[in-house]
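Dear colleague,

Thank you for sharing your sequence with our group. We've completed the structure prediction you requested, and as agreed, I am returning the results in plain text so they can be pasted directly into your records. Please verify that the sequence below matches your submission; if there's any discrepancy, let me know and we will rerun it promptly.
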Amino acid sequence: MPALTRRCYATEQQKPEQPAPNPDEVAKKSTLLGQAPTRRPSVFTPTSAAVFILTLGGLVWYFRSEKERHVEMRKQQDKATYGRPKIGGPFSLLNQDNQPFTEKDLVGKWSFVYFGFTNCPDICPAELDKMTDVMNVAEKENGEVFQPVFISVDPARDTTKQMKLYLQDFHKRFIGLVGSYDETRAVCKKYRVYFSTPPNADPKDDYLVDHSIFVYLMDPNGQFVEAFGQISTAEEIIVKLREYMAEFKEKGHL
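Please find the predicted structure tokens below.
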């Protein structure tokens, strides 16, 4: 018998796979057909917008407050670590009346302490004039609670007699202090003052003394407050003095 030929019939024609419709094309066709285009759902609703704004505001407030807290903490740490420089301390000299004067005589008044020498041609007289101007204003406002102190860094030539004569041109309550070379060097070391007078200087020689130019403000407890340089004006010193006196009073010292 002849072999049977098996016929295969396709039960269903397989359709080719169609790509996903493009939303933009669908919207375009819907518009052409007069149908309302399908809108995409928005993720930025009024509720989510409010949540976003509140969250952003909270983050800004948090980081700002944290920054301020860290800045204040750093200030407190620096103040506790460093504080004010350790300037001043025990010393013993003679005033222009040949009477002993020590660091204990600074207690009870606001003191302006300056280091110089009577043979100084210009800088020292200018600084003592500035101290006189400060004293005149300060005493007018607060009474006689201040004392200006002039410490010589020229022990070879500055005697008590020379100091008394020299200070007559400045504030009437200036206190002039002198001492031996070792005593002068010791007090300068306490106040971190540099001076160039050699220990074997001849008082008959004509020489100049190089030295630090600062006016040291000491509070009524005899503690260092601030050093004013040559560029500080009398007006600037008076402003700072008022601030320090107010702070001193707020702490209950006066």
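Summary note from our side: The CA atoms of residues 44 and 254 lie 64 Å apart.

Kind regards,
the structure core
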